[in-house]
RNA sequence: GCCCCCGUAGCUCAGUGGAUAGAGCAAUGGAUUCCUAAUCCAUGUGCCGCAAGUUCGAUCCUUGCCGGGGGCACCA
């Protein structure tokens, strides 16, 4: 509808110029918006104000000229008006809204899909938590945001891959091994001090016990470094598979798991280092190797190889990101915790240094989650190993509630996650509010079927026969209640909501859209009976609510939330 | 000190330059002989942190300041 109005305006402006009603042929991009206030019409454009200076005419005069030349062959307009400083407001005929329902039924799960991504290969890397402990609530938010963003991009026509980067190399893995080995020694009664920098959680003891059960005291006889390395590998593998299970129970499935260690094994890190040394981006100073990230906007250069000869995390990360592009991705998106924001300039610099455009790389910085219970902060101490894991949260509040709540804020806003609130089955909790729409509609459809109402024939066929087409137009005519038109209008906005959400990579826009649509539906439901006495009217209303149901299911799917038939 | 994010109704937050700034919660009162009351309806609240600038027009863009959070390693 919006596009239709836009075309009409462009045509009118062109005609007006050709007929001499407008002096200049210079036309700005036409912007159409849905006014906040209903009295301002269904759509409005600011074009006459924008054109005023170029045309050297008063905005309202321009608006008049445009309206005079406006052609409306399909008769979609009820009226137009000039308002305020020069807005042109468009009022759409009630019946002109109806065809969108056919479109929704036709496209079904594809309604709202677009091709703005044009098949571009994009990778979304998210979670990527170190395999040194279980996922916590913050990772859950990253998972929800990353997964939904990837889903939305896919729906917008991108060729998307979801990837998890495993930091299975370096110091923290060694620390992990040391932690497990120390606990292992304790199991055999050996006095050991457990340093503060070691991982404190009980899961470390569990892993140590597993090793004891399997290997007995064999590790005690071994060279300590070897024993630690054994513990490290086993623990990382163990923890990683736990992470994978947690993510699966959260409904997140990755297309690819990428090992940091593999970058060393394959020689990618060395090759990267040689490459940038030859190009002069890596140089030696104070016995270390530095990357000249300051050439590309970073505040200072960064170390890639330390004095002690060990590479930094940054080094493998450069190689990793080079590899992403080598694998053919046009665009690379990283989802990081907000505490990593200082890391962005150097990462972006390394990508620019390799000749890539900086807008091929995006970082979504996800802000912290404050875990609450009844409004009170839940005490968590990583040091003491006391924390609530993502799995705990999923078990307590359920996957749907958790995912939805993670997506009820812009990712850059800190999020309060209240465990009690997440379980509440009231209006406070938006998940159920939206899901309830789906369940309610399902229930009506069940009832309808029980009563033997024919409701599926003709609704799904993409090429309706003559008879079906006229039947559909007959039932559409029954939809004229204000609440019905409101609902349909809300549904027309779904595709653009998805597009904007994809362009900005902001999944919360879908969340808000769904809450809004849900509200329009509940209001309608409470005022009008779908299964009415008049069979034609009933068909019309079923046609309407089935479209609502499709969008709810469709939108929830993008967020990774289920659409229940019953609640 | 430098960098990033936030500052909008009592609370939690939407609002990618438009007209009279919105929603939920909280508060009060109401709605179900009938499709799920996990629902709906009614009642009001704002120097959009402050100040300049850009613009026909700024909650939105720019700059400065104030307040809150986070980050500034040869850690990850």
UniProtKB/TrEMBL annotation:
* Principal subcellular localization: cytoplasm
Organism of origin: Desulfonema magnum
Q: Which InterPro entries match?
A: aa-tRNA-synth_I_CS, Arg-tRNA-ligase, Arg-tRNA-synth_N, Arg-tRNA-synth_N_sf, ArgRS_core, DALR_anticod-bd, Rossmann-like_a/b/a_fold, tRNAsynth_Ia_anticodon-bd
Cellular component GO terms, alphabetically? Answer: cytoplasm
The record places the motif ('HIGH' region) at 129-139
Question: Locate the DALR anticodon binding domain: which residues?
Answer: 434-567
Under HAMAP family, the record lists: Arg_tRNA_synth
- Top-rank taxon of the source lineage equals Bacteria
Q: What class of enzyme is it?
A: ligase
Q: Which family does it belong to?
A: Belongs to the class-I aminoacyl-tRNA synthetase family.
Give the PANTHER family listed for this entry.
Answer: ARGININE--TRNA LIGASE, CYTOPLASMIC, ARGINYL-TRNA SYNTHETASE
PROSITE patterns on file: AA_TRNA_LIGASE_I (PS00178)
Protein biosynthesis found in the keyword field: yes
| Name of the protein in question | Arginine--tRNA ligase
GO terms of biological process kind: arginyl-tRNA aminoacylation
Q: Which UniProt keywords apply?
A: Aminoacyl-tRNA synthetase, ATP-binding, Cytoplasm, Ligase, Nucleotide-binding, Protein biosynthesis
- Quaternary arrangement and interactors, per the entry? Monomer.
EC assignment: the record states 6.1.1.19
Q: Name one GO molecular function term.
A: arginine-tRNA ligase activity
Pfam families tied to this protein: Arg_tRNA_synt_N (PF03485), DALR_1 (PF05746), tRNA-synt_1d (PF00750)
**Catalytic activity, as annotated:** tRNA(Arg) + L-arginine + ATP = L-arginyl-tRNA(Arg) + AMP + diphosphate
- State the compartments where it is located: Cytoplasm
Annotated Arginyl tRNA synthetase N-terminal domain residues: 3-92
């Amino acid at each position: 509808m919006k596009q239709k109005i836009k075309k009409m305006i462009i045509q009118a402006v062109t005609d007006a110029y050709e007929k001499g009603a407008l002096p200049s042929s210079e036309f700005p991009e036409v912007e159409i918006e849905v006014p906040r206030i209903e009295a301002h019409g269904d759509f409005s454009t600011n074009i006459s104000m924008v054109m005023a200076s170029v045309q050297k005419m008063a905005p309202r005069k321009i608006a008049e000229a445009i309206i005079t030349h406006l052609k409306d062959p399909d008769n979609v307009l009820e009226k137009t008006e000039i308002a305020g400083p020069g807005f042109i407001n468009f009022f759409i005929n009630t019946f002109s809204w109806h065809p969108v329902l056919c479109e929704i039924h036709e496209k079904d799960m594809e309604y709202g899909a677009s091709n703005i991504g044009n098949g571009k290969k994009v990778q979304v890397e998210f979670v990527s938590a170190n395999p040194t402990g279980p996922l916590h609530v913050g990772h859950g938010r990253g998972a929800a945001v990353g997964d939904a963003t990837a889903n939305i991009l896919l729906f917008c026509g991108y060729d998307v891959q979801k990837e998890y980067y495993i930091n299975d190399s370096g110091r923290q893995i060694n620390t992990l091994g040391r932690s497990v080995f120390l606990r292992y020694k304790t199991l055999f009664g050996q006095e050991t001090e457990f340093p503060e920098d070691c991982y404190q959680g009980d899961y470390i003891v569990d892993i140590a016990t597993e090793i004891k059960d399997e290997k007995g005291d064999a590790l005690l006889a071994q060279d300590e470094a070897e024993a630690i390395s054994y513990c490290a590998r086993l623990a990382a593998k163990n923890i990683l598979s736990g992470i994978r299970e947690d993510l699966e129970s959260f409904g997140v499935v990755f297309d690819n798991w990428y090992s940091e260690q593999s970058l060393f094994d394959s020689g990618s890190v060395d090759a990267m280092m040689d490459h940038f040394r030859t190009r002069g981006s890596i140089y030696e100073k104070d016995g270390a190797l530095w990357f000249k990230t300051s050439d590309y906007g970073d505040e200072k250069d960064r170390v890639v190889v330390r004095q002690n000869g060990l590479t930094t995390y940054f080094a493998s990360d450069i190689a990793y990101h080079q590899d992403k592009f080598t694998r053919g991705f046009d665009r690379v998106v990283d989802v990081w915790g907000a505490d990593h924001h200082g890391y962005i300039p150097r990462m972006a610099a390394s990508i620019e240094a390799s000749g890539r455009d900086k807008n091929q790389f995006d970082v979504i910085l996800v802000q912290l989650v404050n875990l609450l219970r009844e409004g009170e902060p839940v005490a968590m101490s990583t040091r003491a190993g006391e924390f609530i894991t993502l799995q705990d949260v999923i078990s307590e509040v359920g996957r749907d509630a958790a995912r939805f709540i993670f997506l009820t804020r812009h990712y850059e806003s800190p999020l309060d996650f209240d465990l009690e609130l997440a379980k509440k089955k009231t209006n406070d909790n938006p998940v159920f509010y939206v899901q309830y729409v789906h369940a309610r509609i399902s229930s009506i459809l069940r009832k309808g079927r029980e009563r033997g109402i024919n409701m599926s024939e003709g609704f799904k066929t993409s090429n309706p026969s003559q008879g079906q087409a006229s039947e559909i137009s007959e039932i559409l005519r029954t939809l004229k209640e204000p609440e019905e038109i409101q609902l349909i209008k809300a549904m027309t906005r779904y595709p653009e909501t998805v597009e904007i959400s994809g362009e900005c990579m902001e999944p919360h826009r879908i969340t808000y859209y769904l809450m809004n649509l849900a509200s329009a539906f509940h209001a309608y439901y409470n005022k009008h009976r779908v299964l009415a006495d008049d069979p034609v009217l009933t068909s019309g209303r079923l046609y309407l609510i089935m479209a609502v149901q499709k969008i709810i299911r469709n939108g929830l799917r993008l967020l990774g939330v289920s659409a229940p038939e019953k609640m």
